Amino acid sequence: MKNRELDAAWTYHNTTKHSYQSIRAGGHYLDWENQPIPFKIYSGLEAIPLSQKLSPSGVPALQAISAAAARPGKQVAPTSQILGEILFLSAGITRRKSYPGGEVLFRAAACTGALYHIDLYLICGDLPDLPAGVYHFGPQDFALRRLRQGDYRPVLARAAGAEPSIANAPCVIVCASTYWRNAWKYQARAYRHCYWDNGTILANLLAAAAARNLPANVVVGFVDATVNQLLSLDSKREAPLTMIALGNDAPPDIKLTPSVEPLTFDTAPLSKREIEYPVMSAMHEASSLESDEEVAAWRREAQRDARRNRIEDAKEARLFPLRSLDDSEIPKDTIEEVILRRGSTREFSHESITFAQLSTMLDRATRGIPADFLYQAEPSLNDLYLIVHAVEDLPSGAYYFRREDRALELLKEGDFRREAGDLGLGQEIPADCSVDVFFLTDLNRALERFGNRGYRAAQLDAAIMGGKLYLAAYAQGLGASGLTFFDDDVTEFFSPHAAGKSVMFLIALGKSVKRRRGLKVL
Ligand SMILES: Cc1cc2nc3c(=O)[nH]c(=O)nc-3n(C[C@H](O)[C@H](O)[C@H](O)COP(=O)(O)O)c2cc1C
Description:
34% of the residues lie in helices and 19% in strands. The chain contains 19 helices and 16 strands. Helix 1 runs antiparallel to helix 10 (278-286), helix 4 crosses helix 8 and helix 16 crosses helix 17 (453-475). The longest helix has 23 residues, at 453-475.
């Protein structure tokens, strides 16, 4: 089993680390003439338009993002109206901006480089107003295109090792990356971005589904080749990343799993030529699961090995228990309003946020994710480390978030704006914001439990929480931006506490300069 040859994940991770040396020696430049288009465009398939109407759910964003788990037991199937809303709120075009060189169509969720390399596919049985089939979602014209007709859910259920949420789902969304659309800029590091950019989409998707009372469950354990074949992906250039079970119903009454005939579709060329990054394909291969038996065993073993983090010794520590707003105090802006106004903050002011605002963001983003790799006994694969620059009633310094205790532990006090800027690739954003939140994983442990697939799960776990932080910030009128980082320097900065851990994700939170100026004008 390739998934158990753990050197592969370490090799990928180590060779795609950023360091001062790697950046200086890189020599990579952006070939604008060869920039890929940010859409997968099927030339020969008829568009099935989705309804453009977005019904407000009335559910406050902060409530929607903190809904922890799907509710099995309740029978519920989405309509195409609801599916359209969920697709729009996860991956739809929400803003357009013109530049001298063209126009950028920004999407609902943040994405590295605004390159939008992740496509969403829909696999459903007969829904009230959508016939059973396999569909591709095209944000460019907000339409579905049917790749296959008929009920293929049993294929997915089997590929997912009989995962109950998939087996009982009236509809499954599969997220898949076309590497080149991101690798054009980020080269081999784009494999990390697959999970980062999928995570922000899923934070939105889970919140949009929760606001519509639709159970949702994220699944990372499946036979990759089967899903590839079902979606007719080009396995050299594209990869299925996650499945999301939507809704809950009796499993389809189909005796035989339908056979999946090979199909090919014409799609518009992405750019003049494409460059392959073998390190990335090697990582994907090495973390692929090869049979439904392997998937079922993979999930069983990971669950058996789940355990609570050790309860930390509080004797010496300076602890700051979170003081979050409760449901009656939270801003009531709906999840739709918040997703529509979300963007990445381009310039932060040095102003303070309140401890209640920070507490609310941390609390709401870490209440759990419904996913096949997370269990009550081990609800996350990542630890949160913070650099606090400007939070009222909280000394500036480096912190560790004690998830179990819902408290921040001060690791070292001081003004670390300069250091934070350095850790975030020398950018201004991490130095100017109020707080930087780093997600670090014990990669050895994740790989022991899940094999190389643990690398995918750890990246995704961090990115979903990062996506939730984005929404929790905007829900409170604050700003946020995802960031990249110098891997080993971050670990060193938080050591000895973080020694041996690997950085998965970074997000800056605070007040945006634009917003402050806007208020001044008023
Ligand atoms: C994981 C992640 C990392 C990012 N890294 C950076 C970064 O290092 N520097 C930066 O200026 N923006 C960064 N961004 C912000 C993206 O550039 C931004 O999401 C994209 O341009 C789309 O714009 P929007 O978020 O305003 O919709 C990052 C975003 C994500 C999700």
